[in-house]
Amino acid sequence: MKHLSILILALLLGSSVFSQAQNQELTVVSFNVRYNSDQDGINIWDNRKEWLTHSMRFIKADLIGGQEVTYSQLLDMQKLLPNYEHIGIGRNGGNEGEFSPIFYRKDRFEIIKHETFWLSKTPTQVASKGWDANLPRIVTWALFKDKISGKTFYLFNTHFDHKGKEARLESAKLISKKINTIAKNEPVIVTGDFNSAPDSEPTEILLNNGFKDPYLTLDKDQVYGPEYSSNGWNVANKTSENRIDYIYYKGNIKPLSLQILDGQRGDKFISDHFPIIAKLNIGSK
Fold it and tell me: Is residue 9 scored above 80 in pLDDT?
C-alpha cells in the first residue's frame, strides 16, 4: 500500500510538471499574407483567406506576426479569427497603408503596452521612409503577460524594405538598438519578413546583436519543411537564399521546434510566403 501511494504521488507530480511545461509553451507564427492584389489570379485574397486563417486556428497559434496586411484584410482576419485580438496601425498612419499587426489569443494574453515605430532616421515620424527604402516600413511591438504562466515577454513584428539594400542594413541596426532599449533583459521574440537571406549583412547584424535563429540552433529533427520561405507563387528553383522570413528570440527563451509550413495545393498557394511556426518556452533555457 505504501509503495502504491508513492507511485500515485510520483505520477501526480510528473503530470503536474508536464502540465506546467505545456502551459509555458507558445506557438508563434510569422506570416507574410500577401496584400490583396487583384493581379494574383487563382491566388487572390478571397480564395485564400479561409484557408489561411483556418491554418492558424488548426495549429492553435498563440501569437501571429503578420506582414503585408491591408486594412480590408485585417478586418477579414479578425472576423475569421474570433478568438484573437490584434494591435498595430498602417505604415501610413491610422488605417492607411499595410499593417504589420500582431494577433494574439485574447483568452491567454494581457497587453501591458504596445507601440509602432518607423524604420527610418525619424522613427516616431508617421509614414517616414528610411535611407533608400522604396516604402515606409514599420515595427509593431507589445509587452505581453501570459495569463497562464504569469510570464512577461516582448514581441516585435516587422517587414524590411524589398528594394533598399542600405535600408535593410540600417533597419537591422535600428531594430536591434530599439529592442535593447525597450526590452532590456526581458525575453524577446522577433517575427518578420526581413527580405534578407541567411548569409546577408542584415541577418549577420541581428545575429551579432544576440538574436538567435531557431532554424540554426535547433537539432535537425526539430526543424521541418522546405529550406525556403518565399515562394513567389512558384516553388521551382527555390533555395535557402529564399529563406527571408524569420522568428528570432533573445533572452530567457528555449526553442522547441520550427516549421516552415509548405502551404501548396496544386497551383494554389496559401500566400506567396510560407508561414514560419515556432514552438517556444518562455522562461526556460
Answer: no
Domains and CATH numbers, the chain: 28-282 (3.60.10.10)
* Cβ pair 119, 158 in contact under 8 A: yes
Neighbours of 198 (CB within 10 A): 17
What torsion do the CA atoms of 200, 206, 212, 215 make, to the nearest 10 degrees?
A: -20
Q: From CA 275, how far away is CA 260, in angstroms rounded?
A: 6
Q: How far apart are CA 78 and CA 101, in angstroms?
A: 11
Report pTM. 0.92
Kindly report the number of other CB atoms within 10 A of residue 115's CB atom.
16
Tens-digit pLDDT profile for residues 26-37:
999 999 999 999
Contacts of 19 (CB under 8 A, 6+ apart): none
Contact 229, 264 (CB under 8 A): no
Q: Convert the pLDDT of each residue in 169-192 to its tens digit.
A: 999 999 999 999 999 999 999 999
